Amino acid sequence: SDVxxxxxxxxxxxxxxxxxxxxxxxxxxxxxxxxxxxxxxxHGHFGPALAGSLRRxxxxxxxxxxxxxxxxxxxxxxTPVVLFDRNVMxxxxxxxxxxxxxxxxxxxxxxxxxxxxxAAGHGHTLIEGGQGSAxxxxxxxxxxxxxxxxxxxxxxxxxDARLRFLTCQDEAIARTCDRRWASTRIDxxxxxxxxxxxxxxxESYCPxxxxxxxxxxxGLAFRLPAVPFRVVSERxx
Length: 237
Prior knowledge:
- The protein is mainly beta.
- It has a single domain (2-236), classed as Beta Barrel (Acetoacetate decarboxylase-like).
- It is 10% helix and 44% strand.
- The chain is built from three helices and 14 strands.
- Strands 1, 2, 3, 4, 5, 6, 7, 8, 9, 10, 11, 12, 13 and 14 form a 14-stranded mixed β-sheet that branches.
- The chain is globular and about 45 Å long.
């Protein structure tokens, strides 16, 4: 997929709110809290690589990934592994296909999904689940001059390292419907120099995070204009 307009918003969550980690992994913890990120984006011609140039005919659904951050016990300083908490998509065919053919990606179908950015850098993400299981969300943002590091001071060795931690992963783990663990290897070559700071504004809501005691206005937000995305492999652990 030729992904575009990726908006990352990250918060600190009390690590006691996190589910048990997969065997052989542990949460990244700073002062008793662990990072949690919601990233929302629009796919670009999401389809099999074998389709080649015909992939231009494929649809471009919206998607939102909600995840925790892990490290492997045998590589505590290595690249973070993300643990999927929720995934949401807005097109029924992609949700059905993912649930049928993937163990790690089991998305929820939204009844309404807006992910809008204008030329000035203002925008919003709105997810409604109706009577289904998609978690509701509403975030608004505007372009900002720079990162507000207050809540993130002392985490990672500087601004660029913080951004690399939050965006540069090559593996995602998820709990399967039969309570096993599945791992997906991904190729997502994020260039942190292309990340653009955002400032959250307006009335936001996310019942899932608010139930964990998270102050939504304290989120660290930034935008990645475009990035190619590829699923490399998937396996059960």
